[in-house]
Design brief:
The structure is a single chain. The protein has one domain. It is 73% helix and 0% strand. α5 runs antiparallel to α6. InterPro entries: YdcZ (IPR006750). This is DMT family transporter. Keywords: Membrane, Transmembrane, Transmembrane helix.
């Protein structure tokens, strides 16, 4: 088993910045429901989940490319640093595979969300995310700082599962 190097603790963000970070995360989470609606509408129109996935990723790639171009136009020269060969060599070989996990999530959304409803879909997705995220935090893997499992975190996961159950049942 390979171990990851310890991750240096990052300084805490100021309270005002944390509020912005939480607002950004809430908006991002809310947009997941809009995404599910877009994916479902595309699936109903095109009747092909694979084509929906390809279109979805093509649009995402285009959007990220445009954001990159705009950020390069408006950023200072100092913030335009690109990775060196040494940076690329130091990157774990598995790191780019995160895009595949996103693809799996997209296909799950396209194929399942319309059957169970977007609220149940998102609730169960969040429960799955929390279980794995809690384990990843506990072991401090993939570059994340270690945050041990404790009774409060277990209780939070249990509440998320209970919420998922209630969302699916009612």
């Amino acid at each position: 088993m390979t171990t990851t190097a310890p991750v240096a603790a990052r300084p805490a963000l100021p309270r005002s910045m944390m509020a912005l970070v939480f607002a950004f995360m809430l908006i991002g989470g809310a947009l997941r429901s809009v995404e599910a609606g877009c994916q479902n509408s595309m699936k109903l129109a095109l009747k092909n989940v694979w084509l929906c996935g390809v279109i979805s990723y093509a649009v995402a790639l285009t959007g990220v490319g445009l954001i990159l171009v705009v950020s390069l136009l408006f950023s200072s020269r100092a913030s335009r640093r690109w990775p060196t060969r040494a940076d690329l060599a130091a990157m774990p070989r598995w790191a780019p595979l995160g895009g595949l996990t996103g693809g799996a999530a997209i296909f799950a959304m396209i194929t399942v969300a319309s059957s169970v409803g977007v609220s149940t879909f998102n609730a169960v997705i969040i429960a799955g995310q929390m279980f794995l995220a809690t384990a990843m935090d506990h072991f401090g893997v993939m570059g994340f700082p270690r945050r041990r499992i404790n009774p409060q975190r277990v209780a939070a996961c249990a509440m998320i599962v209970a919420g998922s159950y209630l969302m699916a049942k009612y």
